[in-house]
Design goal:
The structure is a single chain. The chain is an alpha/beta fold and 136 residues long. The chain has one domain (2-134). Helix content is 21%, strand content 24%. It is built from 4 helices and 8 strands. A 4-stranded parallel β-sheet has the order 2-1-5-8, covered by helices on one side. A two-stranded antiparallel ribbon has the order 3-4. Helix 3 (73-83) crosses helix 4 (116-123). The radius of gyration is 13 Å and the shape is globular. It starts with a strand and ends in a 6-residue tail after the last strand.
């Protein structure tokens, strides 16, 4: 089984109420669609990491904050924990503050680092790839 960002499968669950369907992701079999940010509602204010990446958020060294300055760290962590499953791999939406793998928005810039959910998964030994790595 593979965890997959639900927005990549066409579910309108992104912060802006849209989806980002991916033909390559839809070709995957045995998938579990998840969206760790849905806990905050759809649509919801855009958010970014402040002070570090998702690993830093999980360690309490960084926060997740909306553009208006509202701290949503606890909801991001809880959403990530609720979406955690016993799988070997995940395909997640690139650059997302939850699902970004290798790059995400930190302190207003696209930087190296993982989102909160991607960090949780990788800390559990789950292989995480982005939709872009599938050639989308």
């Amino acid at each position: 089984m593979t965890l997959v960002s639900a927005c990549l499968l066409g579910r309108a669950c992104r912060y802006d109420g849209a989806s980002k369907p991916s033909a390559a992701v839809r070709e995957l079999t045995d998938v579990i669609p998840v969206c760790p940010e849905e806990l905050l509602g759809v649509p919801r204010p855009a958010a970014e990491l402040r002070g570090g990446d998702g690993h830093d958020v999980l360690a309490g060294r960084a926060r997740v904050v909306t553009r208006a300055g509202v701290d949503v760290t606890d909801a991001f962590i809880e959403g990530a924990r609720r979406c955690l499953r016993d799988v070997d791999q995940a395909v997640l939406k690139a650059r997302s503050p939850s699902c970004g793998c290798g790059q995400t928005w930190i302190d207003g810039e696209l930087r190296e680092g993982d989102g909160v959910f991607a960090a949780l998964l990788s800390s559990r030994g789950i292989v995480v790839r982005t939709d872009e790595e599938l050639g989308c």
